[in-house]
Design brief:
By secondary structure, chain A is of the alpha+beta class. Chain A contains 20 helices and ten strands. The relative contact order of chain B is 0.08. Classes of the chains: A alpha+beta (659), B mainly alpha (189), C alpha/beta (177). Chains in contact: A-B, A-C, B-C. The interface between A and B is large, with 108 and 86 residues.
């Protein structure tokens, strides 16, 4: 019964999406406020119905309703409750439902919080959201219905793939989807603005919070996925330049570019058509990611759905969405007059430099991801593009971008003074160079990378601190006054400082692991001791553990330094009862300066176990940096200027001590 | 990996190997997915780790070279993994072949050439630089140069331009925008 | 604006890409297909001990002068069992079929062959998979056709289908001329 309610709600939601996608457009064209208002009602109702549908499916998972095909295929009655719930989106159909739910929620958020938007713009934004939603609703209902019944219902299910039964991976998809789907709002704003034929400062201000929110979630989603790979895959790597990872990196790069170009559009009324293009492309790339993951064109067993019909549907839909947006762009964008003039060396110029490099980096990833497919289709040549390619292209191209980050905020709008900025940054630069030189003597391998990376890291962190100190006139005026200034600083600028500094933290983490990782692969017998990264390592005989839906072998590995216990790690090797699949559960002890990392392998049958031990200096900084990066975004988001309702309400005078 | 692995999950139950990147001993043939025997055998036969202790060469320098080469060779039955990262049987065999040849005195280039002759360009994670891949290798940098040139010319043209009023806004819009920007200035200080 | 076409460029690229993906999807290419670079090259020099006592060694020298079908197999490999009857039929029809017993214990392989029939003119033992790497193997079963001058002419990275068997027969006939 409940699944039928969910199914029915989903059908109704699709009908509402159709209404939301068409009526407000007509209303905006004819100037009919009634029709335009319908968009809001439809958006809210569509979100409510989609939520109902999603809850119905979740219910089926929680109570293990094995009359649903989807539940049978992806759940098991003995699974812990958490993974029964997360199992809802651990499969193609359910994840599409989550996707469309988030899409509907974003639409509802625009309807609810967009009171200050011009009526026609809001109507058009909601209509575009509705049309995108319609496409996904239809996709789910016609090709990937999670509510399909199975008769007779089996006694128990096939269980969820064990690697998905992990907290990190359970919440990776929802965050990623919040990011991908959040970009749909930027897209809708862009398309609506093209229909209106107007992009102005106010438009840019409305777009920014949505993009920023999407970008924060995307950052977190990517970081969580990377963190999961780090502790679950068991060889201490954290980024593999896999096509599916790249599919999430590309929208992130473009969203980052969009965040920055929208600032120029807002403050200086320039870069309009470029900002609009970025908004369209960022969401198109997010859709492309979905396509690549689900169609099987790149990697066959990677995808949820290798059904060519589904692949073709998504492809057709992307062509419609991206093609529609870009057609409007080709038609309307030439009429978007560029605004404010500025010298090449200026804040605007800096932001353009940022956009240029981010765009080039996106193109590098794009080419790398699709080139094997391209060559194969053209002549049947098989090539692979892997980490060494990106190390030779992406990494060096990102250096100038990171170097420029510190300069940007010091340049004035319209006409900046690069010499003045350089002089201000002389001390920071000197320290950064000293760090680089020092590191070049210390590093054992990848010396150039280590020196440049560490230098850049110091440059970014100190540069951000310097910029903040300058803003609050630290040591120029009494410290108390400085602190008062700090509190009075707009949140957006604090957020920027955090995000920019976080790049340095992240860079340090990446360099730390790449350059100073120590790996020991050994056969370890209980009672024996081995040397690893300055530790004496010993292990007790692994014990058998009986988990809820798995059995495991759990080792107990002790790391001692100078006789003192530094860490006791308990890595596991699990075998899941239903699927007979194994997973390795790495054990990690982090000291914020380094990770001590161990995984347990198989017994050699003669009393020894294979162990893989890693010492990963600065590894936690990778995710710490990413978390700070997202935090910076969230802090900016609380800036009242970016708050969606701000422009109207904030007109109260003296809200901030002006000077 | 990451999301990809998630996604592989649902489908490759039949492929059945630990890390879910779908590397099993024998290749998984679609027609025989259901073959339980194969699955069980794959489970029993495959080691849990990529590089195993018994593979490691005593000669440290040689071992380092072997690892470096392995990291650039793609596993032929996995999802975009190097043989250094893969626990597939065939990856293990290829790692052994690399160590054998290095021990016999082959140069790094010769070892890579040996594998390339047998498995094709597919196994090179660093694609060779030749006319087929010019676009791949040079696409990004070329775009950078092209865009930089375009921007430079645009900047020169703009510098020559006289300052024009930005956009034609209605009086009411102009007022609102002014209010916004005023508020903005206040907020920035 | 003079460069109006610039604004249409993203659209053109997107459409091009869309068409390309559609083609890639419909052409049914497999991203797992790694190709067969050995085709057209002299078969790798191997020298394998025989599986059966008193059998002949499998060496590269055998391939000179006669067209050979070389099949990598193992008793633990289920697809091998599926394709096996096709090989038996080929051998019965006079094709020279040779086997490489891949990572298989002889005591497992022998009863397997006794049960399913032994089509192989000779069988080399590749206990540790070295010959497999020499031949660019990615799994079992895989089948090669080697011509009279010892050059690889066909490499199938999959269990044989009846169609494949037809193709091999035709090729062997052609090469034998």
């Amino acid at each position: 019964m409940i699944p039928e309610v969910g199914h029915y709600a989903l059908v109704l939601a699709m009908v509402l999406a159709l209404a939301q996608g068409t009526l407000p457009l007509a209303g905006a064209a004819k100037g009919d406020p009634g029709l335009m208002e319908l968009g809001r009602t439809a958006a809210l109702a569509q979100a409510a119905l989609t939520l109902l549908s999603f809850l119905a499916l979740t219910w089926a998972y929680v109570v293990s309703d094995f009359s649903l095909l989807n539940v049978v295929a992806n759940s098991h009655s003995s699974k812990p409750l958490l993974y029964k719930i997360t199992g809802v989106w651990g499969n193609h159909e359910g994840s599409m439902l989550l996707w469309v739910l988030i899409l509907a929620l974003f639409g509802a958020a625009v309807a609810a919080f967009g009171a200050n938007l011009p009526t026609t713009l809001r109507a058009r934004v909601l209509a575009v959201q509705g049309l995108i939603g319609l496409g996904f609703h239809a996709f789910i209902l016609f090709t990937s219905n999670p509510f399909d019944r199975l008769d007779p219902a089996p006694f128990d299910g096939n269980d969820l793939n064990p690697i998905l039964q992990d907290p990190g991976l359970a919440f990776h998809p929802p965050l990623l989807y919040l990011g991908y789907v959040g970009l749909s709002v930027s897209f809708s704003f862009a398309v609506a603005a093209l229909i209106e034929g107007r992009v102005d400062a106010a438009w840019a201000r409305w777009v920014r919070p949505w993009t920023l929110a999407a970008w924060c979630f995307l950052t977190l989603g990517i970081a969580l996925g990377s963190w999961w790979a780090y502790y679950e895959l068991g060889w201490g790597g954290f980024w593999f330049w896999d096509p599916v990872e790249n599919a999430s990196l590309m929208p992130w790069l473009l969203a980052t570019a969009l965040l920055h170009s929208a600032i120029v559009t807002e403050k200086r009324d320039a870069l309009k058509s470029w900002t609009v293009l970025l908004a369209i492309l960022a969401f198109s790339l997010a859709l492309l990611g979905t396509f690549l993951v689900r169609s099987g064109v790149l990697t066959s067993v990677h995808a949820f759905a290798q059904d060519p019909a589904r692949g073709l549907y998504i492809l057709g839909f992307i062509v419609l969405v991206a093609g529609g947006g870009l057609t409007l762009y080709a038609w309307r964008a030439p009429k978007l007059a560029g605004g404010g003039l500025f010298a090449p060396i200026s804040r605007e110029g800096g932001l353009i430099f940022n956009n240029l490099l981010l765009a080039v980096l996106t193109v590098v990833v794009f080419l790398g991801t699709l080139y094997p497919l391209l060559l194969d289709a053209l002549g049947g040549d098989k090539v692979s593009v892997g980490p060494p390619f990106y190390a030779a292209t992406f990494i060096p191209l990102s250096f100038p971008l990171l170097a420029a980050v510190v300069f940007g905020p010091l340049l004035a709008w319209k006409r900046g003074d690069i010499l003045g900025a350089s002089r201000q940054l002389a001390a920071v630069g000197a320290v950064a160079i000293a760090v680089g030189v020092l590191i070049s003597f210390v590093a054992q391998r990848h010396v150039t990378l280590a020196a440049i990376g560490c230098g850049l890291s110091a440059w970014l962190i100190l540069g951000a601190i310097y910029e903040l100190a300058r803003r609050i006139k630290l040591f120029e005026i009494p410290v108390g006054d400085s602190l008062r200034r700090l509190v009075g600083l707009p949140r957006a600028s604090i957020g920027m400082t955090i995000a920019h500094a976080s790049l340095g933290i992240c860079t340090a983490g990446i360099i730390g692991v790449s350059v100073w990782q120590v790996e020991t692969i050994a056969l370890l017998k209980p009672g024996d001791t081995l040397r690893h990264a300055g530790f004496e390592v010993s292990m007790e005989t692994p014990r058998e553990i009986d988990g809820p839906n798995f059995v495991a072998e759990r080792g107990r590995i002790t790391f001692k330094r100078d006789g003192q216990v530094a860490a006791v790690l308990e890595p596991e090797r699990r075998i899941f009862k239903t699927t007979r699949r194994q997973t390795t559960e790495a054990a990690i002890k982090t000291t914020l300066l380094a990770d001590i990392y161990a995984t347990l392998g198989e017994s050699d049958g003669k009393g020894g176990w294979t162990v893989r031990l890693y010492h990963n200096p600065l590894a936690p900084w990778i995710w710490l940096g990413a978390a700070f990066c997202a935090l910076g975004g969230f802090v900016s988001l609380t800036d009242r200027r970016l708050r969606v309702g701000a422009p109207l309400r904030a007109r109260r005078p003296a809200a901030q001590p002006a000077e | 990996m990451t999301l990809g692995v998630v996604l592989s999950a649902a489908k490759d139950l039949a492929v059945g190997r630990p890390h879910a990147s779908g590397h099993n001993t024998a290749r998984s043939f679609a027609a025989l997915r259901m073959t339980l025997i194969l699955l069980l055998l794959a489970l029993l036969a495959a080691p849990a780790f990529a590089v195993e202790p018994d593979e490691v060469l005593a000669d440290k320098a040689l071992e380092l070279r072997a690892r470096a080469i392995s990291a650039e060779i793609r596993c032929v039955v996995c999802q975009n993994q190097s043989i250094d990262d893969s626990n597939a049987e065939i990856a293990r065999d290829m790692r052994r072949a690399i160590r054998d040849r290095l021990t016999k005195g082959d140069s790094d280039a010769a070892v890579v050439a040996f594998l390339r002759a047998r498995y094709g360009d597919y196994v090179l994670l660093r694609p060779p630089f030749d006319p087929r891949t010019w676009l791949l290798w040079l696409g990004g940098p070329l775009l950078l140069l092209l865009a930089a040139r375009l921007l430079y010319r645009g900047a020169k043209r703009r510098a020559a331009q006289v300052k024009a009023p930005p956009v034609d806004l209605s009086a009411a819009e102009r007022r609102r925008l002014d209010a916004l920007l005023r508020d903005d200035e206040a907020g920035r200080r | 604006m003079s460069n109006r076409w610039l604004f249409a460029l993203p659209l053109l690229m997107a459409l091009l890409l869309g068409g390309f993906f559609g083609y890639a999807l419909l052409a049914g290419r497999s991203p797992d297909d790694i190709g067969s670079p050995l085709v057209g090259k002299t078969a790798p020099a191997i020298d394998l001990a025989p599986l059966h006592e008193g059998g002949k060694r499998l060496t590269a020298a055998d391939w000179k002068g006669q067209v050979s079908v070389v099949n990598f197999f193992a008793s633990w490999c289920a697809p091998c069992q599926v394709e096996h009857p096709l090989l038996v039929r080929m051998a019965r029809d006079g094709l020279r079929v040779q086997g490489v017993n891949y990572k298989n214990k002889p005591e497992d392989a022998k009863p397997w062959l006794a049960r399913l029939g032994d089509p192989y003119e000779r069988i080399g033992v590749d206990a540790d998979g070295k010959a497999g790497v020499e031949f660019g193997l990615s799994g079992v079963p895989e089948t090669f056709v080697i011509d009279k001058s010892g050059v690889v002419r066909l490499h199938l990275r999959r269990p044989l289908t009846p169609d494949d068997a037809q193709r091999i027969r035709a090729l062997v006939k052609e090469l034998a001329k």
